[in-house]
């Protein structure tokens, strides 16, 4: 454990050292940087190797807890003469103090703002940008105060070869490059491009939170840009990146059809990267040692496929690895020869071992060298750590989604499944939250934990695979055999249990962190309970029991602290300790019920009962000796009794406010009372009545103020219904927030009030419609055909235009335009569509509130399903039908009155066909469909169809004295009816054909009647007059009124004479 902490501190100091060096170099105070032999740029310098003798002293010279953060001010920059040198270098810069020379030192009299030109020269680094000094002027950099996460360690054993976190990180990056190369996205950047790159770290040092910095990786697109981001995030030097890329590409030369991700990467890199590509021998030896260690760990110590009879191969492999390492100590000639022979022999042994089939793949299909447990998850952990911003450990990098998608390409190499990914990612996020205290990371960790599938959700192959992942961990002189999930989740559970076991101390302000920590504890606990060993050992069977244990543990710990404080306070105030203890216990319980219980009660509704009862018991234990020894009324009794009584009253109040009436009494009876009684009362029904009156007032006001404009292009209903739902939901929330007992009758009262509110809303909307009598003009007086020209006195009276509605009614009709009527319909539909959600929400919340009473739950559910909002649904649907009918009627008889009702078939059918109405009807229909919601489209269009057919019948049967039809017009009328029918069917995009056909039937009968000769119509009318007395229709299937109107519009003398003689109908003016 101590070794792991030391390594972590060492890595932290390495990062801080890079920041410090970049900070110094950015100010142009350093005149020259001397490169070590073999180094091309600062990226090639390895400080740990060049200054190995003093690295420990450099890191451990300061105390990490008291050192504080780096300087927040910018380094001094020349003012008058700008330096042509770029002040930022590569992020992976690593130099020691002996490699930096300051040619000219500043004297005591010199100012740091001196205008003297100073120079920084580095070989092979050119083309610095002139505007970099402006960046230095605004440099601001701050680091978080990181928490100690030493107790949060994975339950995994260390590696036998001693590979470090840096080794894992660098190997993980090599795997990432190979996975990217398998998709053809691996290229080697040119030297010129490398020289032009600037330090992303130093750029970020110079930005404020509000500044937007475009990094070099953002200039790149696609896989190339993401890989560059990953390189920076994983702190890989450019030199190492280029070496690895070139080595992987060289390894594929001559291997047609070979995927890069099926290579034995450490072996191929050993073969393809030579000693000359490194700046010094120590760097190369360290690199080679890492590759050899990875081969031993991946192929021997943690092999994905067991050896069985191939155990001899493992011994040979270890011998070859040792010889390879030994070759570096031999003279160059013999050493190179031994190295070549060893690599050839290593390939002959290692490749067949790695290409053995496992987990269902074929021989050679997957190279099993990095997918053995637990090497694979440690490598994948290093890849996942790249999602954090290198300058703000508590934030995810902007490219997190692209990085995670890229990491999926490594699953094949590392043997990662979705369950393993979600678990590792959750661990990485959670540990980073513990280090940084960033709540956003905790929420991300919760999201990943929730994605981990339960055992029954996993496939049989994955269940078998996860069952095979286990390792033995030594701790406190004990060994434990842990499964994969236990290794990753047990540390999280232990941390969460520790925090929640004394939440009064660790989470004093409650806040959202506690709620999320509870979620973590519950989710992790549920996953671990499926592990057979832990399921048998689990003391707490349910989440509720676990929450209760947290409450009990924290209350006990807090009470012990109070006892210590009270002893000190009693001496200072000269008050009795029990009186002070009661006062402090009330404060503790008050804080517990107001800060912590609202969070805990989400999973344990009686959490406050547990804490109150336990606190009551703990105080009672301390109080009992005092009560037993009381014989007379003393000052101590006067002091202690009121305080104890107040505490007991507060405890009972807390219990009553958290429980239903009967349950609270049961809990109170269990208390060993201090001779105290409790009084409780509830006014829920009165509150409901007052709230319902408030709702009705809001409904009326909302409808009165409504202008029937859509809320937005996407939300095409009016604002009034949104307001009504807002006040209703607010009332429901307040209802369920009441911490008082509630009966079913009170809930039904709330339902009835809400139901009535929506009925009132539907009625108020429908009442705003004008009367159909004000829209449809009166039916003209029947007249018969006349041939003479001229008007008689009685005809003048008959031909006066029907009176239009008065001005006030016309304004009311015109205000309700078609779009506004559509918004009304949308609002009513929104009202009825949201009722189910409101109903389910109330039912679910009520059931949750009363789930402990099973008999009540059953009757409640039946009542809620039977008669909750049926009245609202009935009235809203009736209002929708009424508005649909009104909309169609208004369009045909008011908006299109002139072209349709007044002028269709004038002066004759042939001269005024229905085609002229198709265009205005199409405009109206498009307007309707643009605004109306999809579920109401057919209903409102059906209303328009009905109104159109009514208008057509009006024109044919009651068209007035200026319309005449002959038997020859019947064919034209049939054609027009077909045009109308096909218009509404719209080639299958409109109304269903069957619906339109059913509506058209009544008009088709009339058009057919127009095709009969006048004599046939007269005879049928005579017959129909007698048949109607017997309740039957005529031979032609029409009633007398229809036949009479057809004859009145028949343009021949025979019909005119018959009507004059039989019905005394006057002649028309036409």
Describe the structure.
- The protein starts with a helix and ends in a 7-residue tail after the last helix.
- The protein has 1070 residues and is mainly alpha-helical.
- The radius of gyration is 44 Å and the shape is flat.
- The longest helix has 32 residues, at 818-849.
- It contains 46 helices and four strands.
- A hairpin with a 2-residue loop joins strand 3 (470-475) and strand 4 (478-483).
Tell me the layout of helices and strands.
Elements: H1 2-26, E1 32-33, H2 47-50, H3 55-60, E2 100-101, H4 132-137, H5 165-182, H6 191-196, H7 200-205, H8 216-219, H9 222-233, H10 238-251, H11 265-272, H12 281-301, H13 311-327, H14 332-354, H15 375-384, H16 400-407, H17 411-414, H18 418-436, H19 439-451, H20 460-468, E3 470-475, E4 478-483, H21 484-500, H22 503-506, H23 511-528, H24 532-537, H25 543-573, H26 577-600, H27 607-629, H28 635-658, H29 661-670, H30 684-705, H31 719-737, H32 744-767, H33 772-775, H34 793-798, H35 807-815, H36 818-849, H37 854-866, H38 870-895, H39 897-902, H40 915-931, H41 934-957, H42 969-985, H43 993-1009, H44 1014-1029, H45 1040-1048, H46 1053-1063
Antiparallel strand pairs: 1-2, 3-4
Q: Residue-averaged pLDDT, rounded? A: 76
Largest sheet: 2 strands, antiparallel
Contiguous uncertain segments of 5+ residues:
51-62, 77-142, 192-219, 676-682, 788-803, 852-863
Shape label: flat
Short description:
With 1070 residues, the protein is mostly helical.
